[in-house]
């Protein structure tokens, strides 16, 4: 598998470190982990993207779905995405819907 | 002996999502042979991944890559007669990263895209013909797929 997800939960705050590639093969796994966190009541999810090497449109789809489920009160934060990941976020306009921290 | 400029490189792999990473690695190598910078290499990785994914699962995919200084052309062909389709998000991503791309389904699902422009053409300066070509490419986008099942 070319994606590792390391999840830590503290109350309603969750942190997921992504390592590897999110593509058509691995996006379902990201979606599953995000859904689990949301099912468990997470309202602030931080995705550590330092080690995320690749993100495609299926990954964007997983992020958009999680963002929609969080609603206005929740927050989805992408931390330190690499330039290639930032580009996909920008091209799709998703960078305006999520919080991106350097 | 000097390396042959533009000698095509081909890669054949099962049309399954788990092989997209391999396709990206091969495409990144072809892009670096074209002399692309890191940003353009990343664009090629994204385009190959999205377009190979659009060919769907089933059979094998053959990628053929033509590198020359400043320009890379990639063609992908499936073994199955399935029309490649891009959903809205995927199309937005592909349009954001390559200069020109095409999808076709005759007789099998296929795509092609071009990134960059040959160094020779660029050093001569853009002619009116090239400028006109750019306009065509900008509006070409996705070729309508006919005769889909």
Distance between the termini of chain B: 49 Å
- Mean pLDDT figure of chain A: 96
Run of helices and strands of chain B? EHHEEHEEHH
The number of helical runs of chain B is: 5
Series of H and E elements of chain A: EEHEHEHE
Morphology of chain A: globular
| Tertiary shape of chain B | globular
Strand pairing plus helix content of chain A: what structural class? Answer: alpha/beta
Strand content of chain A: 35-45%
Can you describe this structure?
The complex is a heterodimer of chains A (102) and B (149). By secondary structure, chain A is α/β, with parallel strands linked by helices. Chain A contains 3 helices and 5 strands; from the N terminus they run E-E-H-E-H-E-H-E. Chain A has a 5-stranded mixed sheet with strand order 1-2-3-4-5. In chain A, helix 1 links the parallel strand 2 and strand 3. The model of chain A has no long low-confidence stretch (mean pLDDT 96). With 149 residues, chain B is α+β, with helices and mostly antiparallel strands. Chain B has helices spanning 20-33, 38-54, 88-97, 119-123, 128-140; strands at 9-14, 60-68, 71-78, 100-104, 110-116. A 5-stranded antiparallel sheet of chain B has the order 1-2-3-5-4. In chain B, helix 2 packs antiparallel against helix 3. The longest helix of chain B is centred in the N-terminal third of the chain and has 17 residues, at 38-54. Residues 122-149 of chain B have low confidence and may be disordered. The interface between A and B is medium-sized, with 17 and 22 residues.
